[in-house]
Structure formats: C-alpha cells, structure tokens
Amino acid sequence: MTGRLLRLLIGLWLYGATMAMMVRAGLGLNPWDVLHEGITHHVPVSFGVVTAVVGVLVLLAWIPLRQRPGVGTVLNVLVIGVAVDVTLAMLPEPGTLLPSAVLLAGGVVGNAFAGALYVSADLGPGPRDGLWVALVARTGRSVRVVRTCLELSVLALGWVLGGTVGIGTVAYALAVGPLAQRFLRSLRWSGSAPPVTAERAPGPLRAP
After folding, report:
1. What residue stretch is flagged as signal peptide (predicted)?
2. Phi and psi at residue 165, to the nearest 5°
3. Nearest to 198 by CA among 120, 86, 117, 94
C-alpha cells in the first residue's frame, strides 16, 4: 500500500507540473485545462486553485450519480492544483516559438507518463474521469459517446470563457492516449504496479 501511495503522489505531482508546462507553452491545452484557464480570466484566483475548485464541484456531481471516491480521488483534487501553481511560479515565459514547442512536447509526453503512473496505483479515479465513468453507467451510452460529448462541452465552454485552444489541444488529443498506454504497459511489465486493464483505467487509458 505504501508503494502504491508513493506512486500515486509522484504521478499526481508530475501530472500537475506537466499541466503547467502546457499552460506556459501557450499553444493550446486539453479540454478541461481550456476550461480552467478560461475561468481564471474572470475570477481573481490562480490556475491551480481553479483546478482544485472545479475538481470539488465535479465531485459534488458524483452524488446523484452514486459514484464513490477513493483516496486517489481526494488526493487528485489536493495535489494537482498545488503542483500546477508551484511549477507555474518556477517556469519563465518562453518568449519564442521554439521554447514553447519544447515545453508543449515535454508537457504532453510527461503528462502521459504521469497519468500512467498515478493510474497504475489503482487507488481511485480523478474527479473528471469518475464523472464520465458514472455517466456511462447511468445512461447506458458508450464510453466513446459520453466522453466525446462531455469533453466537447467542456472545451466549448472553456473557449467561450477565453481558454487557449490551439495546436497543443490537437497534439494532446492525438498523442496522450497512445503514449499513456505505452507507459502503462512498461509500468505493468516491471512488476512493480498492480494489474490495471484498459477497461479499468480512467482518462486517456480507458478503451473506447
């Protein structure tokens, strides 16, 4: 259990740090981060605080859906927001396209690894992943339909609020799933992680 908790904490911190790298790159974010950034344009709080608050609000939506959180769910809300703000405070503005592209590439690859790392701990999905998992169970619709509708809605709302949509949004959508699957297979092969199947894994690791 101690090893799994450590894996979870490292994965969550890296996840927040790589989110910050994509934010600082300024070339586009994943749908939920587009929403988070959009909200920051309208309220006087940091990106990390918005990330945590949105996580709590999404958790409240679990109640009528009868989805149960795990320790990983709670730590997801607490750790990622702090990691984002700490990393943003440390990263300078890239200034030109090349440093931005490097930040984006590192953010996408690192985010995929971090996601695989914390998922492999198998201690509960994050709030946003748990939401669509619960919606699939309650509506009987396919994962593909529910996730697509949810993330397109989140992306549209974030864009309307002023969140950054760009090449990074497309790069994340195309690359993070395959990369995360590769990292997860490597973690499982090492024998140090509990078994996690594509059907059980949240986020980009879950099978369509």
Report:
1. none
2. -115, 130
3. 120
Number of C-beta neighbours around residue 76 at 10 A: 31
pLDDT at 202: 43
Task: Identify residue 126 by its one-letter amino acid code.
Answer: G
Return phi, psi of residue 86, to 5°. -60, -45
Cβ-proximal residues to 19 (8 Å cutoff; 6+ apart), any chain: 33, 51, 80, 83, 84, 87, 107, 111
Q: Write out pLDDT tens, residues 53-95.
A: 999 999 999 988 888 888 999 999 999 999 999 999 999 999 8
Angle between helices 2-25 and 167-189 (to 10 degrees): 160
Number of H helices, E strands in the chain: 8, 0
Closest by alpha carbon to 88, among 153, 133, 26, 177? 26
Question: Can you tell me the distance from the alpha carbon of 21 to that of 24, in angstroms, rounded to the nearest whole number?
Answer: 5
Q: What is d(CA 69, CA 17) in angstroms, rounded to the nearest whole number?
A: 23
- Pairwise CA distance, residues 39 & 178, whole Å: 29
Give the global pTM.
0.82
